[in-house]
Amino acid sequence: MIPLAKPYLTKEEAQAAYDTILTGWITQGPKVQEFEEKFASYTGASYAVAVSNCTTALHLAMIVAGVSTGDEVICPSMSYIATANAIKYVGAVPVFAEVLPETYNLDPVDVQRKITQKTKAILIVHQIGLPADIDAFAALCQKNNLILIEDAACAIGSAYKGKKIGSHSDLVCFSFHPRKVISTGDGGMITTSRKDFYKRLKLLRQHGMSISDRVRHEAKSLVFEDHVEVGYNYRMTDIQAAVGIKQLDKLDWIVSERRKIAMAYNNAFSEIPFLQLPFENDGYFSNYQSYCVYLKRSSPLSRNDLMQLLLDSGIASRRGVMNAHRETAYAKDAEGLSLPISEDLQDNTIILPLFIPMGKDEINYVIDTLIGALKSNVASEAI
Ligand SMILES: *Cc1c(COP(=O)(O)O)cnc(C)c1O
């Protein structure tokens, strides 16, 4: 069976976790700080704040952006559901805008149409690793006095106009879930260039405590903490951070290996008229967190039949990105909403296996099986 994905973890990560456990300091401490510094330096951001996952990162981003009850935040429905959930956590309303059929990323024209007096922020998503057009949304935000938040859960190691994702705006949220490009089991990070955001994020992730455990532990004279606002426990552990440091060292290599596999798929599928391949315009650099193809109307096989055929051949695949507004939890938000492009993409896209190391034989088996399935069905339809 060829899996869809698997994290690239080695003995180095296991050793780092082992060593950290034996130091006796296992939750947020020196390793978290080291990971944050390295992450900020990697992305080119001024500051990075580690948290428990990207969902909690998005929640804290909403809070420091000042989003609260009754505010509207424009975001795609076509995203993992955590994007919209984070808006709900602060009592705000997710306003779903349409995506572009080539890039799966938010359409600036539809976003502009959906700005109202109540709009407070735009939450863009770099879908499956391909950056959205950050400049277009930054301009919209500036013009309308809105805050830009980036859901970069999938986009660690991706770049936009020559700069790494994480360096363009003031609230960029990352995930280290095993399904993303590097992993700490679970984990998240927020990058920012604003010192006020940085300080507040550090408070909020640890119960609003004015003094961290570590500072208190290392103090030579008595210090007492104050809880200056109602915060959360969204800490990352030092065990996770130690793994993250090793993963970050490998990130550029992981991305370049992922891109080689994506290019092999692109080359092989370019001759198949039924497939729309991933899109990467000049100035956009994807980490290929997922490799997703769109099955055109002309395809002789339905998306689900093709997925079943792949499964029968021992190849895992997944349907494309979900639409939050089609989930039961969002039934009310979906009333009267029309997002034909997002729905069509959800219904007619397939995510194919991409992980490292992925052998040439495995890559070719996926390619041959998929092309073979489409071709043989064309032939049988012709008969
Ligand atoms: C995975 C993902 C999240 C959630 O990340 P967690 O770290 O699992 O909380 C949020 N948004 C998008 C777009 C994602 O793909």
UniProtKB/TrEMBL annotation:
UniProtKB keywords: Aminotransferase, Pyridoxal phosphate, Transferase
EC number, as in UniProt: 2.6.1.102
Active site: K180
MF term (GO), any: GDP-4-dehydro-6-deoxy-D-mannose-4-aminotransferase activity
Primary enzyme class: transferase
Cofactor: pyridoxal 5'-phosphate
Listed pathway(s): Bacterial outer membrane biogenesis; LPS O-antigen biosynthesis
Pfam families registered for this protein in UniProt: DegT_DnrJ_EryC1
InterPro entries assigned to the protein according to its UniProt record, in alphabetical order: DegT/StrS_aminotransferase (IPR000653), PyrdxlP-dep_Trfase (IPR015424), PyrdxlP-dep_Trfase_major (IPR015421), PyrdxlP-dep_Trfase_small (IPR015422)
N6-(pyridoxal phosphate)lysine: residues bearing it: K180
Highest taxon of the lineage: Bacteria
SUPFAM superfamilies, A to Z: PLP-dependent transferases
Catalytic reactions on record: GDP-alpha-D-perosamine + 2-oxoglutarate = GDP-4-dehydro-alpha-D-rhamnose + L-glutamate
BP GO terms, sorted: polysaccharide biosynthetic process
Keyword check for Repressor: no
Keyword Transferase: yes
Family: Belongs to the DegT/DnrJ/EryC1 family.
Name of this protein: GDP-perosamine synthase
Organism encoding this protein: Flavisolibacter tropicus
